[in-house]
């Protein structure tokens, strides 16, 4: 029997049709995987950050309710309570993230345990009877919270591609801003519990918010997802899709802590420039969080009014941060938005330092600018560094270094508001202005160096040279290019 001939081009058409169907199937699968990751990662980790940050910043509102007098604290006692938290926080962030990256340690056990203990110690602040007891609680809290920020960034970075990571980390970060706004509202509400059961209202702030953290941390043991290879909320097909798409983007990646070239990480300019940019943003953010209630009361607002007036500041910062991250992800660039953030903070600090009038409304507007600028600079600098590194161990160490040393800005911000300079705080406002300018300079330098490295990689590829081994100690696939 003669073999039936297909019309010319029929075979090609059939192949094209099959490929089109396959592409549609893959696109649907990718969307399903991303949607599942969004549901399981962002709200759960964001909730942890919300409660942890609530425990960190509620001291600013408790201060307005009189704990300094009750605990017989010296003039610089509040400043000490702020910076002592970050002493242990900075020292332990890198060890904590290395420990989390250890292949036997699952994130739900590690992060859940740290946050559970954090809630207990935070609650103990409301039971302390001396300044020394408060300092001890704050020091332990810093050690426990040091694992969360870089740990969450590491975990999220294992599920999302570079263009996906930014908006998700922004949602995680804005939970801290939301926590600050809610902290002000709760302090206003709990302030009406003064004397209930013979307990001062500032003690109730610590006790009730600490209990909330304990309850959520206990739940997190069961709901924080593991690393992707063990993710049971994905089917086998979905897990394979996730791992394959990440591998395609990252190329050959080192996965063992033993393979890391430590000196190359510690002396890599990307890490330290991104860390300094984060430092500049955090100096603005921590100044606002810790001292804006005090500044507002010294502008002749009552304590309750100061607490309520903080809420719009952080609501604006939340909206600003989300919009900037969405635009940054769509544009595929980071540095212009970081530059805008530093510039906006600079305007806010300049308003404070100019002080042509003692008008509370003008200085209040300046606080909006400082906070909004920091809400762009900090999370985007974390995303920027994460985008420009490869390999889970490298990202684990780099994220911890960035957040650890970046958060050392709190040592500066907690000591630059000198009580005798109130309400003008010349020293604080001058330092804030200076670091906003330095943040702009560092961002421009970093962008220029990244662009230069991209050009060098392009030239190597044109000459047919391999670009997967790199002199800076980070593994790079042949198609890897820095995100500007």
From TrEMBL:
Pfam families: MFS_1 (PF07690). One of its GO terms (cellular component) is membrane. The keyword Chaperone does not apply. The chain crosses the membrane at residues 41-60, 80-102, 109-128, 140-157, 169-190, 202-224, 271-291, 311-328, 335-352, 364-385, 397-418, 424-451. One of its GO terms (molecular function) is transmembrane transporter activity. SUPFAM superfamilies: MFS general substrate transporter (SSF103473). It is found in: Membrane. It comes from the Eukaryota. Residues 459-484 are annotated as: Disordered. The keyword Nucleotide-binding does not apply. Keywords: Membrane, Transmembrane, Transmembrane helix, Transport. It is a multi-pass membrane protein. InterPro entries: MFS (IPR011701), MFS_trans_sf (IPR036259). Gene3D superfamilies: MFS general substrate transporter like domains. PANTHER family: MAJOR FACILITATOR SUPERFAMILY (MFS) PROFILE DOMAIN-CONTAINING PROTEIN-RELATED (PTHR43791:SF54), PERMEASE-RELATED (PTHR43791). This is Major facilitator superfamily (MFS) profile domain-containing protein. It comes from [Torrubiella] hemipterigena. The lineage of its organism: Eukaryota, Fungi, Dikarya, Ascomycota, Pezizomycotina.
